[in-house]
Amino acid sequence: MNAFVAPGLWLLLLSLSTPLPAADSGTMPDFSGFWTVRFERTPSGQAMIERLPRDAVLINDSGAGELGKDDFAGLKLSERSQEEVRNYDYKSELKRENTCVDPSVVYYMQSPFPMEIYHGTEMIVFKMEYFDMVRIIFLDGRGHPPAAAPHTKSGHSIGRWEGDALVVDTTHIAAGTIMNNGLTHSDNIHMVEHFKLSPDGKTLWATQVYDDPEVFTGLAARYMAWRLVPGEYIYPYECDPSYGE
Amino acid sequence: MNRPFSWLLLSVLLWSAGLAHAHHSFAVHFVPDKIIAISGVVTEFRFVNPHGLVYLTVKTASGEEQRWRAETNSPNVLRRRGWSKTVIKAGDSITIEGYPTRDGTHALRIHRVIFADGRELPGQGRVLEDSPGLD
Question: Do A87 and B8 touch (CB under 8 A)?
């Protein structure tokens, strides 16, 4: 990344870079279907990773990966977040009241669970198996609601096409875990995603870039990949808190 | 504790209380590169998300009876590998291979269940070695 461009501005540029005219729906990719995580030794969507801002910290925990205690992927944490992780009680995760706290879109998109996508012209709906989460990406040209509008774990997402890639800008995400190891993102996190199909249409790639100066300096990013599985469907998750102690 | 520090700590605790959870982290609580085996008799099986639970009584070489808690990875994942909520029953004699806890408590994450008649159920694989859906 250019050192003279602030991280937030980079995210804005990623999100708002010159949009290509939306093509008619007949020529746009169709993401519809049941998608299961590709557990990859070598990223099949390496080109997507190479297009990330150069100094974004890549969080390498997508799919089956998990970061351990005190491993925050090299992110430079704010003073408040350093304090948070210093005081974090890992055993509290095992308590009944914490067992079914649903993750935000920052964490649930990278989970090792499948998803269904319903792709329309005005919106795309993601139905996630993990925690039964649902997100809507509006494609009708609307903007985000006012800053003070309610926040939710899935946030408010608006999408637009850049060629054959879907660019999604998400705000209003309620605070939640970033890596499931004690670090929380703020209510003000801003996320930009790129979604793209492989040429054969059987793999869906995505990258996410996060900007959350209350929690870390600069940008963080993830890469994800799913493969299309015809005829499958999502099972209910229905988290049961009785698992907790 | 001086006042500014205590306010900072309080604000952090209020901000983060209950937020940083999804459910517990495997990497934090279990040893991912070690597998141990226990054998015993099942006392209870619950097949619920985020993790199924098998409670069993294990008799040690000295005759002591220990209560172990073995958790599965998500039942949703396991349903696609042949598990169901009745696949294990109280009274079953089983061997469980799994990842031990970091704190040494009598608990583990199931890698494989082996029944007395030789049947096997796959649990959590080793990451990128035998994960389901590996391309």
Answer: no
